[in-house]
Amino acid sequence: MKQRAMGIEFIIDGLVKNGFAVLPQFLKQHEVNALAQVMQERKNLFHQAGIGRNACHAVLEQIRGDEICWIEPTDPLAATALAQLAELKYALNSQLYLGLDELECHFAIYPVGSFYKRHLDQHRGEDTRVVTIVLYLNPAWQAHDGGELRLYLGEEQYMDIAPVGGSLVVFLSNQFEHEVLVSKRERLSLTGWFRRRLI
Length: 199
Ligand code: OGA
Ligand code: MN
Description:
By secondary structure, the chain is α+β, with helices and mostly antiparallel strands. It is built from three helices and eleven strands; from the N terminus they run αβαββαββββββββ. The relative contact order is 0.23. Manganese (II) ion binds near residues 119, 121 and 178.
């Protein structure tokens, strides 16, 4: 079986058994570098991330300190990663019947010292986000760089995942509270949500 097909099977297996999966090397090193480069070139397009939508939207740096830039589905410079994520979506729909529609995604930069407190990836009164994906774009991440994704498996039980370049974290959006621990180095990712069709 091809490496990529094996990766997708590994993710599906993890989702079925545990509700989440962490796949190292979803992207190759040169693909990670290319996307990190695109992010650096767009740095002036990033804006402070908020919490909630519309009237609830507020920038609360005590809760999250990342800066984001939305990615259009047709973005030519993100095409390789988007195509691979579309393959994943296809597999999730055909094997798990999740009925996923579009991928809503953005680049995120966590400046030195920033974090994102414990939360669930759903806007109040809205449950169209079904599967969360986080693809890390940090070459040579070291343990002392911090910035781990802390995924809560129970109230007090958790797992820490280092944002190592090329690795992909996938989890069911409404099942796992999570947080980003203080990052001691600039931390880059492509974060997104496969949404369910609104019927
Ligand atoms: C988010 C988020 C996790 C990460 O953007 O909602 O939780 O590891 N990101 O970047
Ligand atoms: Mn989140």
